[in-house]
Structures are given as C-alpha cells and as structure tokens.
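Predicting holo structure, adenosine monophosphate bound.
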Amino acid sequence: MPIDATQPYDPANIFAKILRGEVPCDKVHDDALALAFRDINPQAPTHILVIPKGDYVSWDDFSARASDAEIAGFIRAVGEVARAAGLAEPGYRLLANVGAHGHQEVPHLHVHIFGGRPLGPMLEPDR
Ligand code: AMP
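Done. Tokens:
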C-alpha cells in the first residue's frame, strides 16, 4: 500500500526495525550514516536497498531536513555499494519511490539499486 510521504516518521516501520537490529537483513554495507541490504523480493539479479541511518520518511523529507554530512555520506554510500557489487560497469539503475504517486511502500527513505541485466526502458508506457 503506497504511503503518504508527508506523514511524520513512524519508528515502527520495517526499516527502522532493521536499523535497531530487531529484524534481520542480508547486509552488504554498514557505516555511520548508511546501511545497505538485499531486497527481500528482488526485481533484478542484483537488488539492494540503501537507507540513511537517520529518521527520514522519504527523499522529500531527507532533502529538506538532513545535514550536508548526512546527505554526502548517504550519496557516497549508494555509489560505494554499487561499485562493490560490480555494477559500475556495465551499469545499473537507482530508484527512490516517493509517496503515493511514486508507490512508496516503506516510510523510511530507501534508494533501490538494480543491476545484473539490461534493465529496459525507464518506465512502463501509460496504460
Ligand atoms: P518501495 O515500494 O520503494 O517502498 O519499496 C519497498 C521495498 O522494500 C520492496 O522492494 C520490498 O521488497 C522491500 N522490503 C520490504 N521489507 C523488507 C525486508 N524486511 N528486507 C528487505 N527488503 C524489504
């Protein structure tokens, strides 16, 4: 069910539980500002989620409230995770779903990294 990205942060969301160690994850990266783990329902041969450690609902919330250090650390982590997964060449796709029209389901900012095969056109045509 897509979320309302303007809602206050919900500390009971599944990624908050992963950050607190209450729910396991298949971790691929962990630093002071970001955590990355494999998506439980992969949509590509490589499908990794990167999340900031701070309490941010969405890209909209993060870009408005996070410090420059948090933003820089998060963006660097996304690139490092993709490189470490061997995706820099031949390439990969980043996706951050935001709110209802973006079909965001988990209300903690996450960037999807997809790779491992040619990913096709960016969006499905309008139906
Ligand atoms: P989004 O629609 O952008 O909010 O995507 C949420 C993503 O989180 C989906 O791709 C889910 O498969 C993934 N997901 C949900 N729960 C977990 C979990 N416990 N561990 C890993 N990935 C998860």
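The first strand starts at residue 27 and ends at 30.
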